[in-house]
Amino acid sequence: MNGAMSIAHLTINLHALASNWRALDAKTEVETGAVVKADAYGLGVGPVSATLAEEGVRKFFVAAAEEGVAVREAVGPEPQIFVFSGFMEGDNGLLYADNLIPLINSPEQFKRLQQAMPDRPFGVQLDSGMNRLGLEPADWAELRPEMEAMNPVVVMSHLACADEPDHPMNRQQLKTFRDMTDGVTAARSLAATGGTLLGSDFHFDFCRPGIGLYGGMPFVDAKPVVTVDLPVIQVRAVEVGETVGYGNSWVARRPSRIATVAAGYADGLHRAIGGGIDTFAGDQPCPLVGRISMDLITVDVTDLPEDPDRLRILNGHQTVDDLAEAAGTIGYEILTSLGARFSRGYVE
Ligand SMILES: *Cc1c(COP(=O)(O)O)cnc(C)c1O
C-alpha cells in the first residue's frame, strides 16, 4: 500500500476493470464502448480511459463537454468521444479543440450545431420514453430528413428500467426505438450495462456500459474493481453498558475493543449505512458499531487476536452494492461519492 497512512486509501484494480469490459463485450456480437462520465464513476477518468483504450475501446461517453478533455488526453486522437448533454451554449471551443461528438437532444441544440459547426460529426439522442434527455418523437419526425442528410454518426436512446429484466418498459422502449429509427443509416445504440444483459434484441450496433465495468450491479458477474483501506487511529477498551459515538446508538453487551478508523460520511461512506456492514482484517469481518461521523467510523475489533493498524471496508466479500443496500441507495452513488480526500493507487 502506498500513500500516506493517515488517510484512507482507495485502490482501483485496472485488471479487473479490463476484465469486466471484456466480459461484457463477450456477451454481444457487436462493438462495446465505455461510459466514463463523472470521472469514470469516481475512479479516475485518466487511468480508466487509458486502460480501456488499450483494451480496444473506440467509443467513449461523457456527460459534459468539459469531461471530454481528460478523456481525449488519455486515449489519444483516434477514439470517438460522445457527449450526452449534447451541444450546450458555449461548448463550441471544447467540442472543436478535442474533437468531441455532441449527441443532439433538442431542436435548439440542432440549430446551434447547424449554425456553429455544420461540418462536424454529431450524434442524435432520442427520447424513447424515459423523458429525461433526447429529441421527442414529434421533433425527430420533423427534423429527421434534415438530420439524416447531415449523416449523424449515431442515433441512440436510453432505457429507464433495464436493471429489471422483466419490466415491461424495456420492450416498450425497444419498440418505440425501433419505430423511431428503422431505416436510419447511422449506427444505433440503446443498451447500457442493463441493456447489454437483456439480450441481442437490445444490442443494435454497439453497447455502452458504465457501471458494469466498475464492478457494479446489475452485472452480477463483475469483478470487484475497488478496495478501500481505512487506517486505525486508536483502539480502546469499552466496558459492558458503555456507549460508542453520537447519540449513544451502540451499547457494549460484552467487554469490547473498539477501533476508530479515519473515514466517514464526508468520504462517501454515508451516514445512512446501517447494520450488517463489516470492515475486514484479512478475511475476518469486524462490524461497524455506532454512528458514522464525518471523518470517523468505529468498529468492534474484539474478536481479532491483536489490534489492527488498518481495516478494509470494500473488497471482494463486501461490494459497493452491499454498502449501497445498507445505505438505501445504489452502487453508482457509492462509487461516485467515494473518497475525494482518499489517497489513490492503481493496480496496473
Ligand atoms: C450513464 C449512462 C449510460 C451507462 O449506464 P450504466 O447503467 O452505468 O451502464 C449509458 N447511456 C446513457 C445515456 C447514460 O446516461
TrEMBL record:
Catalytic reactions of this protein: L-alanine = D-alanine
Active-site residue list: K37, Y246
Binding sites annotated in the UniProt record for substrate: R132, M294
Family according to the record: Belongs to the alanine racemase family.
Residues with N6-(pyridoxal phosphate)lysine modification: K37
Gene assigned in the entry: alr
Cited function: Catalyzes the interconversion of L-alanine and D-alanine. May also act on other amino acids.
Gene3D superfamilies, A to Z: Alanine racemase (3.20.20.10), Lyase, Ornithine Decarboxylase, Chain A, domain 1 (2.40.37.10)
Cofactor names: pyridoxal 5'-phosphate
Protein's UniProt name: Alanine racemase
HAMAP family: Ala_racemase (MF_01201)
Stretches assigned to the Alanine racemase C-terminal domain: 225-347
Organism, as annotated: Ruegeria meonggei
Matches recorded under SUPFAM superfamilies: Alanine racemase C-terminal domain-like, PLP-binding barrel
KW Isomerase (keyword) present: yes
Organism domain of life: Bacteria
GO MF annotation, one: pyridoxal phosphate binding
Keyword Isomerase: yes
Stored PANTHER family: ALANINE RACEMASE (PTHR30511), ALANINE RACEMASE, CATABOLIC-RELATED (PTHR30511:SF0)
Listed pathway(s): Amino-acid biosynthesis; D-alanine biosynthesis; D-alanine from L-alanine: step 1/1
